[in-house]
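Saturday, quiet lab. Running sequence design on the structure tokens for the scaffold JK sent over.
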């Protein structure tokens, strides 16, 4: 019997320890997914400004709108397709779509090619990141869901940080194009190879958990429309998580598209901008190693509320700052606040959604969350175009604080430890 045949007949068990090899592999795959996003974090704002002559306006942020809108919609379908066809085929499809992206970014001669690359990247990220989330939730089972999401998001955003820093140094040494985007080409090739040859399907793990987790709210399995309503509006915890996720990525769009231009306009060079751009996702990524685990022990709600308020303070400090040290502190604070929020919101979805329809609930939540990229780019671009980038930063800070207060008022605690 082949090794693959033996593995396919191995008993299905839940838990991180029981599935350590596959879980670790999926952590690596999600780091590559994050690296595909990291290649853009400082390069595209600078390309828009210095190569294509587009300022911090709606026109200059169209690549974020394209990315956010396509990723948001793809997230929704990724959840449904993962339930219908399995997780692995969706993951592999996402990597296939990613293959042309680095070449388009490196050699596109008109802005439309950059926007087209971000349409493909949004579809790819929606498929790959969604399925790695779903697969880790499948493998981990209910006991360590927060830790699993912390490890997943730490890998992804740690890679965003490392790649952003690396592209800054490559751009300083070799120019804005094409050298920084060679990293993305390597990530796409490696991610496709690992996902095709080594990653295994996890849908049976969800079925195993579902067999011991009866539906208690409605007889039978709800329709996709019912799941979308429950996640978006009907359930207080799920809907509060969805709006917080959207606002979280709205302020990430600001950090991606506007912060580098503010720093450049105040005299910072590309290496310093790269350091600042890396600090935020680095703290975000590493912090999730702690915050996901922490939410398994103290509950979800208060970490999310605190994290949104900390983010609001950090964003305000960027607008108020005038030197590298203060901006660096703000980036660290923004990363810490996001680390409190990001894996914890995913854990809320996993807590509330039944395993039979959890993948679709994750898809709906990620539809709202990543729609925040498009909303944030449009909002920040419109305000920056009328009143300047600083006004956009202040407006997003206020909106982020309001989102945290809404979580405090609406969300119920979803983890037993937080209800004690």
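Result came back. Writing it out in full:
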């Amino acid at each position: 019997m082949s090794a693959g045949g033996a593995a396919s007949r191995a008993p299905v068990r839940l838990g991180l320890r029981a599935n350590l090899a596959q879980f670790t592999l999926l952590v690596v795959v999600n780091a590559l997914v994050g690296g595909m996003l990291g290649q853009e974090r400082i390069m595209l704002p600078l390309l828009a400004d210095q190569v294509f002559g587009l300022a911090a306006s709606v026109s200059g942020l169209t690549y974020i709108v394209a990315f956010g809108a396509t990723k948001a919609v793809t997230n929704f379908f990724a959840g449904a397709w993962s339930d219908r066809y399995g997780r692995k085929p969706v993951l592999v499809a996402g990597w296939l779509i990613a293959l042309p992206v680095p070449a388009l970014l490196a050699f596109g001669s008109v802005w439309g090619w950059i926007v087209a690359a971000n349409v493909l990247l949004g579809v790819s990220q929606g498929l790959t990141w969604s399925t790695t989330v779903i697969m880790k939730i499948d493998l981990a089972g209910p006991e360590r869901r927060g830790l699993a999401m912390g490890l997943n998001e730490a890998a992804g955003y740690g890679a965003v940080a490392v790649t952003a820093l690396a592209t800054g140094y490559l751009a300083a040494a070799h120019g804005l194009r094409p050298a920084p985007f060679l990293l993305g080409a390597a990530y796409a090739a490696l991610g496709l190879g690992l996902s095709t040859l080594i990653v295994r399907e996890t849908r049976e793990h969800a079925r195993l958990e579902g067999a011991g987790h009866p539906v208690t709210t409605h007889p039978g399995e709800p329709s996709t429309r019912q799941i979308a309503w429950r996640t978006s509006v009907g359930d207080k915890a799920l809907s509060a998580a969805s709006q917080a996720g959207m606002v979280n990525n709205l302020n990430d769009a600001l950090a991606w598209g506007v912060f580098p231009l503010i720093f450049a306009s105040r005299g910072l060079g590309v290496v310093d901008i790269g350091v600042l751009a890396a600090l935020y996702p680095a703290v975000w990524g590493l912090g999730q190693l702690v915050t996901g685990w922490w939410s398994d022990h103290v509950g979800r709600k208060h970490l999310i509320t605190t994290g949104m308020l900390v983010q609001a303070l950090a964003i305000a400090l960027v607008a108020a700052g005038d030197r590298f040290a203060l901006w660096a502190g703000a980036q660290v604070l923004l990363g810490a606040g996001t680390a409190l929020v990001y894996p914890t919101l995913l854990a809320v979805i996993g807590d509330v959604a039944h395993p039979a329809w959890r993948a679709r609930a994750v898809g709906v939540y990620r539809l709202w969350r990543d729609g925040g990229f498009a909303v944030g780019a449009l909002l920040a671009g419109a305000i920056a175009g009328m009143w300047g980038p600083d006004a956009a930063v202040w407006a997003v800070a206020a909106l982020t604080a309001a989102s945290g207060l809404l979580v405090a008022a609406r969300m119920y605690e979803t983890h037993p430890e937080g209800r004690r």
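Notes for JK: Residues 79 and 360 are 4 Å apart (CA to CA). Confidence is low (pLDDT under 50) at residues 1-8. Ask whether to fix the surface positions before the next round.
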